[in-house]
Design goal:
The protein is an alpha/beta fold and about 475 residues long. The protein has 3 domains: about 50 residues; about 210 residues, Endonuclease, Chain A (2-Layer Sandwich), CATH 3.30.870; about 160 residues, Endonuclease Chain A (Endonuclease, Chain A, 2-Layer Sandwich). Strand 6 and strand 7 form a beta hairpin.
Length: about 475
């Protein structure tokens, strides 16, 4: 007996499949996911079932593969145990109870201790930062550890690469990590890898998406960290990639866009913590534990008076370490909060903390770019301006054609954060980031100088101006806001 499927059967089959997808989505999607993200995914699956399901299968799991998460836990435990008895300097006395509590939170989530006796110097000029890092690399006698989201050899970075070549030629170990997805297909990618090979550097791609080689995870999980460590004595970290300020992209050059960034040069015990982040990423990518650097984590001697704590975060950790730190600081602020973030797309908790600070009488300022380089994020960010302005936030828009790429955060006059983390849901849930908590009025004063410089190059957005936005802009902003929750 032969069963023939006519059009009716196909309609019934499609209907049943659609029902099964919808029911399964309600069971699977919300599990361990923010309500807003779950609702966005459910809407996508309900309105465009097959496309929504396909997208969910590709980018619906905001976690690294289980093996990589195990590696992160293992290296965290290893570093925590190894560093337990080491002298990380003497923190300054008189820390408030909330600061001590935040330090404990960071230690529990990210494994790294608070370090005292540090020196930190901000470098706010783009080319000067590249040149300073090159000069420091040339002082190396043992090793140079390089980890950047984007790493390109070009006219602006030639001095940086020449410095690596010079030290490699005299026997210094050069290790390099660069993000795979952020660099592949970009200008000078092949030339960069050839140059690393020619100098004899040990280099690896971070979070490679190479299914044919058995290496695959959600393709938009990225290692967004930027750091450099030389001999365990000097480190750099911040927001800047090793590339030209235009990123060598034709669309940026055509629009005249240049990136504005901020890096910090570190000396003292905290350098060991920056190096620990590199060593953990090296282990995650290579399965190689650099025991010579971990078993005897090198803690440099006293260099200054600042208290610093490195806070790594990302999908390899169980919790959103950076978001929890930011929330703690926002609720601790008593007088002033200044936020600098090129991509500002807060979740409900962060938005509530910022607006609550305003209602408590805290002076809050937010620096963003007047022009965006990523359309969806730019419009999603704009969708929050009205509620922020109504709450009393002062929004400063850094004038085009510059993209303010700095990520920094100060509260009152004693505590600051600087690093690679934006204040958006991508940085909180999908990117591997590195932030540094700093206690010290001298450092906050340096950040204040940078803030004042940015303020002089920005214009303040008013609620009156914002309410004149055309309807089409509001529609675009709100649609982009909905898509930002798809994690």
């Amino acid at each position: 007996m032969t069963i023939e499927f006519d059009a009716t059967w196909w309609i019934v089959l499609g209907f049943v499949t659609d029902i099964v997808i919808r029911v399964a989505a309600v069971i699977i999607v919300p599990r361990n996911r923010r309500p807003t993200a779950a609702m966005a995914w459910l809407l996508a699956i309900y309105f465009i079932p097959f496309v929504g399901v396909l997208l969910f299968l590709v980018i619906g799991t905001p976690r690294l593969p289980r093996t990589r998460r195990r590696k992160q836990r293992a290296i965290n435990d290893y570093i925590e145990d190894t560093s337990e008895g080491l002298d990380f300097g003497t923190p300054q006395p008189g820390a408030s109870a909330w600061f001590t509590s935040l330090v404990a939170l960071n230690r529990n989530l990210g494994a790294l201790p608070l370090a005292g006796d540090n020196l930190a110097r901000l470098v706010s000029e783009y080319q000067q930062s590249l040149d300073d890092m090159a000069a420091t690399i040339r002082t190396a006698s043992r090793y140079v550890n390089v980890e950047f989201y984007i790493l390109q050899t070009d006219a602006s970075t030639d001095g940086f690469f020449r410095a690596l070549e010079e030290v490699a030629a005299r026997g210094v170990t050069v290790r390099v990590l660069l993000d795979h997805w952020a660099n592949r297909g970009k200008p000078f990618y092949a030339q960069t890898l050839r140059r690393l090979d020619a100098m004899g550097a040990q280099w690896h791609l971070m979070l490679p998406v190479q299914p044919l080689k058995g290496r695959y995870q959600r393709p938009d999980l990225r290692n967004h960290r930027k750091l450099l460590v030389v001999d365990g004595e000097v480190a750099y970290m911040g927001s800047q990639n090793v590339t030209d300020s235009t990123y060598n992209l034709r669309k940026n050059i055509r629009r005249g866009l240049h990136w504005v960034d901020l890096m910090v040069r570190l000396e003292g015990p905290v350098v060991a913590s920056v190096n620990a982040v590199f060593l953990s990423d090296w282990y995650s990518e290579t399965d190689e534990i650099l025991s010579g650097e971990i078993d005897a984590i090198e803690v440099a001697g006293a260099a200054g008076t600042l208290d610093c704590q490195i806070v790594p975060s990302g999908p390899g950790f169980e919790f959103e370490n950076n978001l929890r730190l930011f929330l703690g600081l926002l609720y601790a602020a008593q007088e002033r909060i200044v936020l600098i973030s090129p991509y500002f797309v807060p979740d409900e908790a962060l938005l509530l903390a910022i607006t609550t600070a305003c209602h408590r009488g805290v002076h809050v300022e937010l620096f963003v770019s007047e022009e965006g380089d990523q359309a969806v994020v730019y419009h999603a960010q704009r969708s929050y301006y009205e509620v922020l302005l109504r709450a009393g936030v002062h929004i400063w828009m850094y004038r085009k054609p510059y993209i303010l790429h700095t990520k920094a955060f100060t509260i009152d006059d004693e505590v600051a954060v600087i690093g690679s983390s934006n204040m958006d849901m991508r940085s909180f849930g999908l990117n591997m980031e590195i932030s540094m908590l700093v206690r010290g009025a001298a450092f906050v004063a340096q950040v204040r100088e940078v803030e004042e410089k940015y303020r002089s190059l920005s214009r303040e957005l008013t609620l009156e101006e914002w309410l004149k936005q055309p309807l089409r802009s509001t529609v675009l902003d709100n649609l982009a806001r909905l898509t930002s929750a798809l994690q």
